[in-house]
Design brief:
The structure is a single chain. By secondary structure, this protein is mainly α. It has one domain. The protein has ten helices and no strands. The longest helix has 39 residues.
Length: 213
């Protein structure tokens, strides 16, 4: 049986890397102009996709990336570059313009797209979270005195609880949307776009430093 300290450490580590509270305003900016139902769908789908990704890496470790010859640092650089593109769209309102121009069927595809990128990857299940999951998987499976899979199953339970809390946090973010008005939405979207751009640059810088050091 894993100790309480090991489980708590796993939860805190993943909570910090997933950062549901910090991602809530970004989620609000990414889904600006969407209805409450659409926003909930994005939050739930994004958390489900993130759950599947983290479950995969918790079970397999680095085997998938190793099989493709990809390092976690290269993954970090790629995620940062893609995230910067999203930030650019937020700053110049390209997302909202595209959403207003497309049909309802295309809007549904757009909702599914946002759920996967950038919400699930790399905001929730980014390189940092994947790295932490891989490390925790190794540590908890080794710390399990009963069976190798006991530690993995415990980690999966921690991931599930964390992403459930994350989904609730993201859905609660829409309450803020009702009180900030159109001007507030415009300011918030651009401000968060700049912050997201800075985060993406940090991803690229960290990954490049590790790759070329």
């Amino acid at each position: 049986m894993l100790s309480y300290d090991v489980i708590l450490n796993a939860f805190v580590t993943l909570f910090v890397t997933v950062d549901p509270i910090g991602n809530a305003p970004l989620f609000l900016g990414l889904t600006i102009g969407m209805s409450s139902m659409d926003r909930r769908m994005v939050a739930i789908r994004g958390c489900v996709v993130a759950l599947l990704i983290l479950t995969l890496f918790a079970v397999t470790g680095t085997a998938i990336l190793d099989a493709m010859g990809i390092t976690i640092d290269a993954f970090r650089v790629a995620g940062g570059l893609l995230l910067f593109y999203t930030a650019f769209e937020m700053i110049y309102e390209k997302r909202q313009e595209r959403k207003e121009e497309v049909s309802k069927s295309a809007v549904k595809e757009h909702i599914a797209s946002i759920s996967v990128f950038p919400l699930a990857i790399p905001l929730l299940a980014g390189p940092g979270t994947i790295s932490a999951t891989i490390l925790l998987s190794s540590e908890m499976s080794a710390a399990s005195t009963e069976h190798h899979w006991m530690g993995i199953m415990t980690l999966l339970a921690v991931i599930f609880v964390l992403l459930l809390l994350t989904a609730i946090t993201l859905m609660a973010a829409e309450l803020l949307d009702k009180y900030i008005g159109n001007t507030g939405k415009m300011i918030l979207t651009r401000l968060l776009g700049v912050l997201l751009a800075a985060l993406s640059v940090q991803y690229v810088a960290d990954g490049a430093q590790a790759l070329f050091s």
